[in-house]
Write a structure and sequence with these properties.
Helix content: 40-55%
Radius of gyration: 28 Å
Distance between the termini: 62 Å
Number of strands: 12
C-alpha cells in the first residue's frame, strides 16, 4: 500500500514492490497528496512490470552486455575506458557466464564477492566496481530481464560502529602553506628542467585548481580573471580530450596581480610543438570525436621534451610526488626511490635543490650522500586544492565567494540570497598577494640562489623583473654546479633535504 511520511519541510513517498520486504522511498514532495500519488503510480508500474521476458532470462550477463547494454552507452571517453577496465577485469570473469535467471537469486554471492574485493583493493575502487555491477543489474531490471536488483546495497546490520571508526581514522588530507607551495613549485621546475612547472604548480596553489583544470588553462581565457571553461584530460590510447570541468563547475577565478603577471609571462614564453601544416585540431586527439578536440597551441602549458601535453600520471609520479614527498613512484614498491643527491664535481656537498639525474639507478644510489626530504608526506596534486580552500578560510573569505572560486554548488535557500561583492574580492586578492610576498621574501632570506631562472628573477625584482628578461633555463649539468651549498646536519632537515649516510641507508628509505 502506498503512503507518505512527513519530513521537516517536505513529504516522502513510500511504496512496496515484489521481492522486497521494506518500502521503497523517495523524498522531496511538497505535499502529502503529491507524495501518495507518486507512490501509487510506482506500485502500479511495478505490478505491470512484474512479468519479465521469459525468452531473455536465459541470456548470460556477458551476452547482454555485448549485444544490448554496451552499444547503447554514450559516455565520455574516460568513463568508457574505466567501465571497460572494470568489466574486463572484474565483472565478466566472475559473473559473465551466469544467466539472469541465476543472477537474480545471487544476492548473497554478490555480497561475499564485495567482501573479497575489499581485501585486495582500495575502498574507492571497490565502490567503483560494485557500483557498476549494481548499475548493470538495475538496467537489466528495467529491461525486464530480472524482477529485482541482486547487487543493491544492503542495510548495515550491527556494523555501524566499525565503519564510523574507519571513517574517523582515515588518513586526512594534509595541506601546504605558501612557503611549502613555493618550494614544491621550485622543485617541480628543477626536476622538469623548465620554468613552466613552477608556474603550473603556483597556479594550482593560488587558484585551487584540479590538475586537469590547470593543464587545461588556455591563453585567450586568462586576463584579470581566468575563465575555467575546460579541463584537459588524458583519454584512451594516450589521447587528450577537452571537456567541461568536473561536475560542470565552469567558473571565473579572480587573479591577484602577481599571478596575472606570472601567467601573462607564461603565455608569452610557452613553447608548443609545431602541428602539421593546415591542421585544424591538435594532433593529441586524433582518435577522439570532434567535440573533445581543441585547436593546436591554445594552452598555457605544454608537455615535456616537445610533446603536446603532460600525461597526468607521468607528471604526478616523476615531478610532483618527488617534489612534495621526496619520492618517485611513492605507491609502487617496484620503482619507488628517493630523489638522490651526490657530491658535486668539486667534491663538496650538494645544495638543497641539487639532484642526481645523470647516473643509472644503481649507480645513482651508490653515489648518493643525501636525498630530498618530504615537504608534506603523502601530499598529492589534488592537495593543492585542499590547501587553497584552507588558505581562503585562513584569510576569512566569505562562503559565497569561496564556493564560486572552488566551483562548489550550494543549493540551500540561504545560499540563493548570498552573493560575492567587490569588497569581498578585493580583500581576498589582497590576502593572496600578501601570502605570495611573504613566501617570496622568505625564499630570499634563505640566501640560496636558484637553478630555476624564473625563481631567480622573482627573487631579484619580483614579478616586474619578468618583463625585462628573456627566458633561459640551465641544463642539468649546470644545475648541479650553480647552486650554493646549504647547511646540512645529520638527522635534521635543512632547506628541504636530509643527510643520510651510506647507500644502504638510502636503500632502506627507498624500500
Amino acid at each position: 500500500m502506498a503512503y507518505a511520511e512527513k519530513l521537516v519541510k517536505s513529504w516522502r513517498a513510500c511504496w512496496y514492490v515484489a521481492g522486497r520486504k521494506s518500502a521503497v522511498k523517495k523524498s522531496g514532495f511538497p505535499t502529502e497528496k503529491a507524495a501518495v500519488a507518486y507512490a501509487t503510480e510506482q506500485e502500479v508500474d511495478a505490478r505491470r512490470g512484474d512479468a519479465t521476458r521469459p525468452e531473455a532470462r536465459k541470456l548470460t550477463l556477458r551476452q547482454w552486455i555485448d549485444d544490448e547494454w554496451w552499444p547503447t552507452l554514450g559516455l565520455e571517453p574516460m568513463s568508457m575506458r574505466n567501465y571497460k577496465s572494470i568489466l574486463e577485469n572484474h565483472i565478466r570473469p566472475t559473473w559473465g557466464s551466469m544467466s539472469f535467471e541465476q543472477l537474480e537469486h545471487s544476492g548473497r554471492r554478490i555480497q561475499a564477492w564485495k567482501s573479497t574485493l575489499a581485501e585486495s583493493y582500495s575502498r574507492r575502487y571497490v565502490l567503483n566496481i560494485t557500483g557498476l555491477m549494481s548499475t548493470l543489474c538495475s538496467d537489466a531490471v528495467d529491461a525486464k530481464l530480472m524482477n529485482r536488483n541482486p547487487a543493491e546495497g544492503r542495510r548495515t546490520r550491527g556494523k555501524v560502529a566499525p565503519k564510523r571508526v574507519e571513517r574517523a581514522t582515515e588518513e586526512k588530507k594534509d595541506t601546504m602553506d605558501a612557503r611549502q607551495a613555493f618550494l614544491a613549485a621550485e622543485r617541480c621546475a628543477v626536476l622538469s628542467g623548465r620554468d613552466d612547472e613552477f608556474v603550473l604548480a603556483t597556479a594550482m596553489f593560488y587558484m585551487g585548481l584540479r590538475i586537469s583544470e590547470a593543464m587545461g588553462l588556455e591563453r585567450d581565457l586568462v586576463s584579470t580573471r581566468a575563465s575555467l571553461q575546460y579541463q584537459l584530460h588524458g583519454g584512451p590510447k594516450g589521447a587528450f580530450y577537452r571537456k567541461v570541468p568536473k561536475d560542470g563547475s565552469v567558473r571565473d577565478v579572480d587573479l591577484p596581480p602577481f599571478l596575472r603577471e606570472l601567467l601573462a609571462w607564461q603565455a608569452g614564453q610557452v613553447s608548443h610543438p609545431t602541428p602539421p601544416k593546415g591542421a585544424r585540431w591538435c594532433p593529441c586527439g586524433d582518435t577522439l570525436e570532434e567535440q573533445y578536440r581543441h585547436p593546436p597551441g591554445v594552452h598555457l602549458f605544454s608537455g615535456p621534451d616537445g610533446s603536446y601535453h603532460w600525461p597526468q600520471g607521468v607528471f604526478r609520479e616523476q615531478v610532483y610526488y618527488p617534489a612534495a614527498q621526496g619520492l618517485f613512484y611513492p605507491t609502487d614498491k617496484r620503482f619507488r626511490r628517493p630523489v638522490y643527491q651526490s657530491l658535486r664535481e668539486d667534491g663538496s656537498m650538494p645544495g638543497p635543490f641539487d639532484w642526481e639525474s645523470t647516473l643509472e639507478r644503481r649507480a645513482r644510489m651508490e653515489a648518493a650522500v643525501t636525498c630530498w626530504a618530504p615537504l608534506v608526506p603523502g601530499f598529492t596534486p589534488h592537495g593543492m586544492r585542499h590547501s587553497h580552500r584552507s588558505l581562503l578560510d585562513q584569510l576569512g573569505v566569505r562562503k559565497p565567494l569561496m564556493d564560486e572560486r572552488m566551483g562548489h554548488s550550494d543549493r540551500s535557500v540561504s545560499a540563493s540570497y548570498a552573493h560575492p561583492t567587490a569588497p569581498m574580492r578585493a580583500a581576498m586578492l589582497a590576502g593572496l598577494a600578501a601570502e605570495w610576498e611573504q613566501a617570496l621574501e622568505w625564499r630570499r632570506s634563505l640566501g640560496v640562489s636558484s637553478a630555476v631562472s624564473v625563481v631567480e628573477r622573482l627573487m631579484e625584482g619580483g614579478v616586474g623583473a619578468l618583463k625585462s628578461h628573456s627566458r633561459s633555463t640551465p641544463d642539468a649539468k649546470s644545475r648541479r654546479t650553480a647552486t650554493p651549498r646549504g647547511m646540512v646536519v645529520e638527522g635534521v632537515t635543512v632547506l628541504g633535504f636530509s643527510l643520510i649516510p651510506g647507500a644502504l641507508k638510502l636503500a632502506e628509505v627507498a624500500a
